[in-house]
Each structure stands twice: as C-alpha cells, then as structure tokens.
Amino acid sequence: MSAPAVLVHRDQELLAAAAAARLLTRIADAQAARGAASVVLTGGGVGTAVLAAVAASGARDAVDWSRVDVWWGDERFRPAGDPERNETGARAALLDHVPVDPARVHVMAGPDGPDGDHPDAAAERYAAELRAAAGPGGGPVPEFDVLMLGVGPDAHVASLFPGLPGLRDERPVVAVRDSPKPPPTRISLTFPSLRAAREVWVLAAGASKAEAVRLALAAGTDVARAPAAGARGRDRTLFLLDSAAAAELPD
C-alpha cells in the first residue's frame, strides 16, 4: 500500500474544484494509456460537490464518457431514485449531464432490484459484476484507476464502520446491517477491494471531520477504531482536505 499524501485547500468549494480537475486529468490519462478508465464514486456533501464541479468544468469534454466504467464504494439499501442513495446524488450532479454508457454504470441494487429485499444476495451480485469486469486471470475486482471515499466524523469510509464485522471481511462486497448512521442496511466494498485501486482519494471537509482525519493519518492507528486509517491505494493515496478538516494535523 502507498503512503498517504495530504493536500489542503482553503474551503470546500476550492477542494471540490481542485479534485474535479484532478479527476478529469486522471481519467483522460487512463484512457490515453489503456483506452478506458474505471472510477469508484462516493456520496456525501463533498463527494457530490466534486461531481458537480466535474459537470461544470469546461474540461469535462476532454474525457470520453462512453469509455468510463462507474462503480460505487457503498450504497444505502434503498429503492432506485431514493434521495438517500449515493447513485441518486451522482446522477443529478454528473451522470445525467454527460454521455455515459448505461451499461458501464454499475449500480448497487436496492430492495427493488433483482434480489428483492435480500442485501446479501445484492452484495453477491455486485461482487460477480466486479469479478466479470476484472476479466479472465484477473482478481476479484478491477484495477480501479481512482477510488474516492468520504470520511465520517467516526472515521468510517464507504460503509465500513468502527467495530462492525465488515472491517474484517475478505469478500469483495458485503451487506452491512445495524449501521450506526441511517439507513441501517447498506452494501459496501471491503478493504481488499478498496486497496485494489491504483489511487485512493479520501475527501474531507469541515471541522467535524478533523479528528477522524487526524486518526486516519496517525501512525499505528487501529483500523477497527478508525477505518479511514486502512484506506490506501496500491500506487497512490491522497487525502484531499479543506483547512477545517486539516485543523488537527501537525504542521
């Protein structure tokens, strides 16, 4: 795993704009090198703000959106279109405004999906989709070019919360029950899947995230206490912060 680098921006607006520019460049570079790109999206205020900044960018057409595979790090187990779903926010902020290939937008199903009200089956279905995208001889998940994560005040990432069993699960995707943050039922990638990404970007804005960021970057932090401490990319890990979220970091 790569050692994290920290980039601090004055406020959330600048953070979102800078992350959007970085994301567009990274996607374009991946397409130039391999013909396609694979990104994992996150929800939350800052994650959605980044997608909105991508949509508003004059450089967005430098990307061939028909050759971008879109995945999610986690999803609330709610029906399609529910405002609590990360997918709903991503579509409104970006995906409805660019010519993505619907077949390359890989959605985590909710209770209205093919497996009904069975989140474990929905998680297994997503794992199978990831495995198919990895291709023959590949791993259980594709080598994502960029995987973005938000971080909660409790230092959770994706839907991997302190103390819950998903932290130790080796399967690529798990159902999460009894989430301390509503809604209680979710689907999430696990650490082996997160760490398969070439680059992991942890996005955090606001003073409520400062302690979580400090723990995530402190040497020797127990991942069971602060899951964000385990969010690392294979080639690169970036903590993209605003000044409030970085307030408890040493100079």
UniProtKB/TrEMBL annotation:
GO terms for biological process: carbohydrate metabolic process; pentose-phosphate shunt. InterPro entries: 6-phosphogluconolactonase_DevB, 6PGL, Glc/Gal-6P_isomerase, NagB/RpiA_transferase-like. Hydrolysis of 6-phosphogluconolactone to 6-phosphogluconate. Residues 11-236 form the Glucosamine/galactosamine-6-phosphate isomerase domain. It comes from the Bacteria. GO terms for molecular function: 6-phosphogluconolactonase activity. Pathway: Carbohydrate degradation; pentose phosphate pathway; D-ribulose 5-phosphate from D-glucose 6-phosphate (oxidative stage): step 2/3. The gene is pgl. Belongs to the glucosamine/galactosamine-6-phosphate isomerase family. 6-phosphogluconolactonase subfamily. This is 6-phosphogluconolactonase.
